[in-house]
């Protein structure tokens, strides 16, 4: 997976959306959390009350929707040089919890923690963002996706998102 390429694609989409309201980062964090909820809903593994715990076909699409917001969080928090300094996927210490349910909770917690650190003007944002990304990428692995599937899914959905912006979505 070429993370730098994905950051560039996300930057292009961000420029097309062109929203700069003072509440942008708050909305971005909530959008990410909502996407993680949709992803968990499609995964279905936490639904102890349901006999049907098979993931839905749209699970990858929901995961890459989250990836769009995860990348945008990086673009909002870090400057271009810091993004270039992020480890490549092959050099990341992908973080995995004991099960997928814990991983979902950890990624939501990490997203909120990034917002708190941003508000405090923390000097550790690059390190914390790396951890956030490692937890997010760990979730993708735990859901059974290959990096090729994730990258292809992201690029396909990115095209859809560009088309939506052009049509006034």
UniProtKB/TrEMBL annotation:
Pfam families from the UniProt entry: dUTPase_2 (PF08761)
Gene3D superfamilies named among the record's database cross-references: Type II deoxyuridine triphosphatase (1.10.4010.10)
The protein's name in its UniProt record: dUTPase
Source species taxonomy: Bacteria, Bacillati, Bacillota, Bacilli, Bacillales
């Amino acid at each position: 997976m070429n993370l730098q390429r994905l950051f560039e694609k996300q930057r292009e989409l961000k420029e097309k959306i062109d929203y700069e309201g003072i509440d942008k980062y708050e909305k971005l964090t909530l959008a990410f959390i909502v996407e993680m909820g949709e992803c968990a809903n499609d995964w279905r593994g936490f639904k102890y009350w349901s006999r049907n715990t098979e993931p839905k076909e749209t699970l990858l699409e929901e995961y890459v929707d989250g990836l769009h917001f995860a990348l945008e969080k990086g673009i909002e928090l870090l400057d271009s040089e810091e993004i270039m300094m992020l480890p490549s996927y092959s050099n990341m210490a992908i973080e995995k919890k004991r099960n997928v349910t814990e991983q979902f909770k950890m990624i939501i917690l990490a997203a909120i923690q990034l917002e708190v650190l941003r508000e405090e003007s923390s000097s550790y944002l690059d390190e914390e963002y790396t951890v956030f990304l490692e937890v997010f990428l760990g979730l993708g692995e735990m859901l059974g996706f290959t990096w090729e599937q994730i990258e292809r899914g992201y690029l396909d959905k990115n095209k859809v998102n560009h088309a939506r912006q052009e049509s006034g979505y």
